[in-house]
Amino acid sequence: MGKGNKSAIVSLVERSSRFLVAFVLRPGSRSGNTRDQFIEVLGVMPATLRRTLT
After folding, report:
1. Range(s) of the domain holding residue 15
2. Helices (H), the chain
3. How many folded domains does the chain comprise?
4. In this predicted model, what pLDDT tens digit does every residue of 1-54 receive, in sequence order?
């Protein structure tokens, strides 16, 4: 979370390959917005990398 909780960065790390995906959350409702962005990011990633995300 950024200063004053006005911004946030999400990072996803795949455990075995250390593949990193990071993105800035768009402004708005945090839970719904976060869910939608996760769906977008995970849809682009190969299925083999999605299995071991932390």
Report:
1. 3-50
2. 30-44, 47-50
3. 1
4. 777 777 888 888 877 888 888 888 887 767 888 888 888 888 888 888 777 766
